[in-house]
Write a structure and sequence with these properties.
The chain is of the alpha/beta class. The chain has 16 helices and 29 strands. A 13-stranded mixed β-sheet has the order 2-1-12-11-13-14-15-16-17-24-23-19-18, with helices on both faces. Strands 7-6-5-3-4-8 form a 6-stranded parallel β-sheet, with helices on both faces. Strands 9-10-20 form a 3-stranded antiparallel β-sheet. Helix 3 links the parallel strand 3 and strand 4.
């Protein structure tokens, strides 16, 4: 997902371009409500972002350098985003559910020179910093973490004035692949002033205009690519942000009502939990201010989508994209007209369906979905092989299967069969299988998703015991404990079943569908 060219307001007047210009023009305007209710003015946030740039430069960072954050939703996360964006740095947001070795991989692979963490994630951040051999002088914490310097030291004594040599920086998100190891999605720095790119234009794809009384609710973790993209774009076109730290359905309704929120980014699991609230709770809050409740990241069951449209109306909209780029967009009207569609291509994107031989398929024929961004390309950091893989010309794919109709509406019919989507998060079995196979009692292992009423899917492991080990509850518990030490909670198998011999062909190919299908009998995989 990338920025789009310049846009104008409905009245035809160009708004101040970007957060920094707006903060200079109206420093008293409230631009952020932090979790807990503290309000931040544009001038105050601008000053902290400037101080952070000066502090990071004092720590040795130069244009093109990287710093990583392990932070909850809060002011510090947005400060880091704004600092990177005007100093030519790459910001690497790290999923705070990861464990130490997983964070260490990202910190090391990205080449991060500074790590900023929150005390809430002290153990994982410390283990990561140690394993990545990050010097103590370049570890900072919000709160208190032994061996880390206070975050305030990065800002204290630094000027609140804009830094010299301002130049646009980017976010470098890490996305997992079928090989299990996450890779950074790196875009070249354009080498121009931040104001020379219309950073909020992305939201224009969804019909969201600058200013216009909009308020953006951040209801999911900012380390997610789309969540930070939406929040950052909103901030740059004059929309105040309301941040949630830990999402609950009733608190979301309360914030929408209290702040007259107009747009947000969601995943279907959140829809499911909102719909499960008692009717009297739903009726207690006014959500009529919502103009765009945009969901993505996972398939949404038809009955859930219809129920949300019945409740919230035409603001329930859907997109299809990847961290690498996008994408398609469907309004509620589009979806009701063509149930199941994820929409038509964005104005800055192209969609195509190809067969396995690389031939472009006509409307109505099932194949692999490819996308192309017209605003620039990307590469996977330190992985040219992966960068070139799964491409046809300028088009790339993440492996989803689908078809387009005569009007250009995309329908997904399947996805990378091994990928698990639980609560809107992509989980790749190869990494989990690798951890399972490192246990001495495991001769062979397979991981896949099975039905879960709330999350869509949960992680199931099937294990072939090694010789000398007996399939039993005690062994299953031992294997699960082994996973706890090496995998983030959302990646860990929730249960282990045993099998005498794993179904593989003579060449070693695993027939995973034979294992998975029995668990899905009587259920429809959301696609």
């Amino acid at each position: 997902m990338t920025a789009t060219p310049s846009s104008t307001t409905a009245a035809g007047q160009q708004p101040p371009n970007g957060f920094w210009a707006q903060a200079a023009a109206d420093p008293a305007r409230t631009v952020l409500t932090a979790p807990g209710g503290e309000e931040w003015s544009a001038g105050r946030l601008h000053a902290d972002a400037n101080r952070l740039v000066h502090g990071l430069r004092a720590a040795g960072l130069e244009r093109g350098d990287v710093f990583a954050v392990v932070l909850p939703n809060g002011v510090e996360f947005l400060t880091a985003y704004l600092a990177a964006s005007q100093a030519g740095f790459y910001l690497v947001p790290v999923n705070h559910h990861l464990v130490g070795p997983e964070i260490a991989w990202i910190v090391s692979d990205s080449g991060a020179k500074v790590l900023i963490a929150h005390e809430r994630f002290a153990d994982a951040a410390t283990a990561a910093a140690d394993e990545a051999a990050l010097p103590a002088s370049h570890r900072y914490c919000v709160g208190a973490v032994p061996g880390f310097r206070p975050y305030g030291e990065l800002l204290d004594g630094q000027p609140a004035t804009p830094p010299a040599d301002r130049t646009l920086g980017w976010v470098m998100n890490y996305t997992s692949g079928t090989t299990g190891r996450p890779r950074g999605i790196r875009r070249p720095l354009p080498g121009r002033l931040p104001e020379e790119t219309y950073l909020g234009g992305f939201l224009g794809i969804f019909g969201i205009r600058p200013f216009d009384g909009n308020v953006h609710l951040v209801c999911s973790p900012l380390y997610h690519t789309a969540v930070l993209q939406f929040a950052g774009a909103a901030l740059h076109i004059g929309h105040p942000l309301v941040l949630m730290d830990k999402w609950t359905p009733q608190e979301m309704l309360r914030l929408i009502d209290a702040h007259a929120c107009t747009h947000t980014h969601m995943v279907p699991t959140q829809f499911h939990r909102l719909l499960a609230l008692p009717q009297e709770t739903k009726d207690a809050y006014d959500v009529s201010s919502m103009r765009h409740a945009i969901h993505g990241a996972a398939p949404c069951p038809d009955h859930v989508k219809r129920a949300m449209i019945d409740w919230w109306g035409g603001c329930v909209e859907e997109y299809y994209a990847a961290s690498e780029g996008g994408g398609a967009f469907a309004t509620a009207e589009d979806w009701l007209k063509k149930p199941g569609t994820v929409g038509r291509a964005w104005p800055i994107s192209e969609l195509a369906v190809f067969d396995d031989d690389g031939n472009r398929l006509p409307p109505g024929e099932l194949g692999t979905v490819y996308m192309k961004m017209n605003t620039g390309g990307f590469s996977y950091h330190k992985d040219e092989g992966k960068t070139q893989k799964n491409r046809i010309g300028d088009f790339f794919t993440v492996g989803d299967l689908g078809l387009m109709d005569e009007e250009g509406y995309l329908f997904l019919r399947d996805r990378k069969i091994d990928m698990i989507i639980s609560g809107g998060v992509n989980i790749y079995p190869a990494e989990i299988e690798s951890v399972l196979l490192s246990h001495p009692a495991v001769a062979d292992a397979a991981v896949f998703g099975i039905p879960h009423a709330d999350w869509g899917e949960e992680v199931k492991a099937v294990v072939e015991p090694a010789e000398g080990f007996t399939a039993a509850d005690a062994l299953a518990a031992e294997i699960l404990h082994h996973c706890e030490r090496q995998l983030a909670g959302y990646k860990r198998p929730k249960s282990v079943d045993f099998i005498g011999t794993m179904p593989r062909d003579p060449n070693g190919k695993l027939y995973k569908r034979r294992l998975r299908d029995p668990y899905w009998e009587g259920h429809e995989r959301a696609m």
